[in-house]
Amino acid sequence: MIAGRPKTPAGFTLVELLVAVLVFGLLAASAYGGLNALSSAVGAQRDRALAFADLQRAVATLDGDLRQLASRRGRDREGRLLPALGGASRALLGRRAGRMNPAELPRSQLQQFEWRLEGNVLVRRSWPAVDSAPDSPPSGRTVFAQVTAIEFRFRDAAGVWHRQWPAASPPQSLPTAVEYVVDTAAFGGIRRVVNL
């Protein structure tokens, strides 16, 4: 038998294992904190992007309604003529052309619409007929949330701005431009001027 050093067992001591577990735990905790913060930031950014897309859709829809305004008067429930465009500082009622008719039904391409702020929600209502009374149930209702205020102004042919339409002009006439300001809590105010 050859005499030599005694054979030492291979492996880690208990202290070395505890230190390794502690270091791994610290690394895992810091990685989890970073991933949690990243996940929260991604969620907040997604919510902001969805709110911005909703606001863009509202502005595009309102612009489309204004750009396709028709100089056609409507009627209320009693048969009285309504102006071609009825607007106050916070509401708008009019008729537009370009109504989609994919089934080619025998109907008008005109559509009556209304924009109004209800609480913190901007609502667009529409009716299938031009002569539907504004107090009758609408066929379409679109909601744009997180709008704190909306303000309309109307420019007449002389270039004077009014907070109500029709102003002194005939009720079948349209303004030369409509300005609106949409205020939102997340994005501030958006001002648009649509020339007609």
Which key features would you list for this structure?
196 residues; 5-stranded antiparallel β-sheet; Pili subunits; single chain; 28% helix; alpha+beta
Q: How would you describe the overall organization of this protein?
A:
The protein has one helix at residues 14-67; strands spanning 85-87, 91-96, 111-118, 121-127, 140-145, 147-155, 161-162, 177-184, 188-195. With 196 residues, the chain is an alpha+beta fold. The chain has a domain at 63-195: GSPII I/J protein-like (Pili subunits), CATH 3.10.610.10. The strands form 2 sheets. Strands 1-2-3-4-5 form a 5-stranded antiparallel β-sheet, with helices on one face.
Topology:
Elements: H1 14-67, E1 85-87, E2 91-96, E3 111-118, E4 121-127, E5 140-145, E6 147-155, E7 161-162, E8 177-184, E9 188-195
Antiparallel strand pairs: 1-2, 2-3, 3-4, 4-5, 6-7, 6-8, 8-9
The averaged pLDDT comes out at 83
Number of strands: 9
Globally, the shape reads: elongated
- Please identify the structural class as seen in this structure: alpha+beta
At CATH level 3, the topology of one domain is Pili subunits
Architecture per CATH nomenclature, i.e. the level-2 architecture of one domain: Roll
What pattern of helices and strands is seen along the backbone?
HEEEEEEEEE
What summary fits the major beta sheet?
5 strands, antiparallel
CATH superfamily of one domain: GSPII I/J protein-like
In helices, the fraction of residues equals: 25-40%
Query: What count of helical segments does DSSP give?
Result: 1
Across the major sheet, the strand order is 1-2-3-4-5
Q: Uncertain segments of ≥5 residues (pLDDT<50)?
A: none
Rg, Å, rounded: 32 Å
Strand content: 25-35%
Q: Any idea of the CATH class of one domain?
A: Alpha Beta
